[in-house]
Amino acid sequence: MTNSSPATRLHLPLTWLGLAPFALFVTLFLVLPTMHIVIGAFQTRDGSFTLQNIIDLNSGTIPSSYWISIKISAASAALGSIIGFGMAVAVVFGAVPRWVRSPLMTFSGVASNFAGVPLAFAFLATFGPVGLVTVLLRQNFGIVLQRDLGFNILSFWGLTVTYLFFQIPLMILIITPALEGLRREWREAAQVLGASTLQYWRMVALPILFPSLLGTFALLFANAFGAVATAIALTGSSLNIVPIQLFAQIRGDVLGNPNLGYAMAFGMIVVTAVANVVYIWLRIRAERWLK
């Protein structure tokens, strides 16, 4: 029986050493904060266990704030999925030059992570009361966005349109590999059997892409539902959504209840976790189809 050398005995731990920074980052900035929120949701101010914070989620304006947040997330996810899918189809199957495709994918990677105060400022400078587009339409065409079109940047549709800035690029990034996975043989077989382009998409391509589309919608929903900084920076307290209600509870004044804020954050974690689980499950099914 031969003894393994010291280099062999150290080989397995050293292969995992590269994951140490990632594991440390996840623990410090994801696991521990999440555990702190979950524990705080079931505590009183003095640290004792209680379920009252969870019960209070059904009181006051909290249920309506969740419902508005869900509607905004669903609307932005639906519009982002439709527009992003159309753009991705044009990039993959259309006559788009390569010098256009590469910058578009690069921009999508940057824009999908552009949020918070800079995004809110950009849209206020564009569609706000004295924004560039607002002033141009009023001076050149006599169109007042709020009066004639009923559009207000500090409203439901205003926040939804703002979210589209990062929802559409995220959809393009995720759905493009799925579109590239559609085999040329499937389309050729459909054409040989007499199927038109519309029939191919309706009866072959879309059924195969359906898990990817539905999973990406779930991911976009979770992405919008968890967007906190953009909503607060853009609407302040003018729109009753969960992030603003949460900020009111944890900002530290006498009227706030930090533990109720933890409970609201716990509710947001549950909603986004469910959406992400749906996305992961559907993505696994989609990858199985495309193999």
From TrEMBL:
Membrane topology, record value: Multi-pass membrane protein
Pfam families documented for this protein: BPD_transp_1
A single BP term in Gene Ontology: transmembrane transport
Primary localisation category: membrane
Keyword Cell membrane on entry: yes
Keyword annotations: Cell membrane, Membrane, Transmembrane, Transmembrane helix, Transport
Cellular compartment(s): Cell membrane
Domain spans labelled ABC transmembrane type-1: 66-281
InterPro entries documented for this protein: MetI-like, MetI-like_sf
Membrane-crossing segments per the record: 20-42, 74-96, 116-137, 149-179, 199-221, 228-248, 260-282
Domain of life of the source: Bacteria
Claim: Acyltransferase is one of the keywords in the record: no
One Gene Ontology term, aspect cellular component: plasma membrane
Family (UniProt): Belongs to the binding-protein-dependent transport system permease family. CysTW subfamily.
Protein name: Putative transmembrane component of ABC transporter
